[in-house]
Amino acid sequence: MQMIHNLWKYKYHLAGVAFFASSVALPVAAQTPGLAMLGQLERGDWQLTDRDGGMTQRICLGDTAQLIQIRHQRSACTRYVVADGNAQVTVGYDCGTAGYGRTTIRRETNRLVQIETQGVVRGAPFSQMLEGRRIGACT
Fold first, then answer.
1. Per-domain residue ranges for the chain?
2. Sheet bearing 88-94, strands edge to edge
3. What is the distance between the alpha carbons of residues 90 and 139, in angstroms, rounded to a whole number?
4. Mean pLDDT throughout 11-19?
């Protein structure tokens, strides 16, 4: 009888640990962790130049995580970190019906980055290689 009681206690203990682990892991997975490399980039006015000779755009970079979703800037997306290094990060994101993407940002300096992003926006695939350069303060 004592053995059965101990098995029930063990079973409930494991169930409690599993519940705690899943309740802790789920909210963390839905957020983008710190990505320390992005925190080192200088805020301000940035110019993003398509390395294939395409368009150039400017953004006022307040939150450096804006560089992750260049083609989905106004979309609410769930992000997940693929790789988080001192000089390079890769983040995937899913924006529901707006599309999804995967972006790699490589820091050359705190004012110069190389960005590779690809995914789907409004049903159409995209792939871009950009150079991001801080050009001054936001106006």
1. 1-30, 34-136
2. 56-61, 44-50, 124-136, 112-121, 99-109, 88-94, 78-84
3. 30
4. 38
Gap between the terminal Cα atoms of the chain: 76
Cβ atoms 105, 68 nearer than 8 A: yes
Q: Which of 90, 29, 39, 87 is nearest to 61 (CA)?
A: 39
Q: Which of 45-59, 72-86, 97-111 has the highest mean pLDDT?
A: 97-111
Other CB atoms within 10 A of residue 130 CB: 24
Q: Please give the model's pTM, rounded to 2 decimal places.
A: 0.73
> 113 has which bridge partners?
107, 132
How high is the pLDDT of residue 35?
A: 85
CB atoms within 10 A of CB 38: 20
Q: How far apart are CA 136 and CA 139, in angstroms?
A: 9
| CATH classification (class only), 34-136 | mainly beta
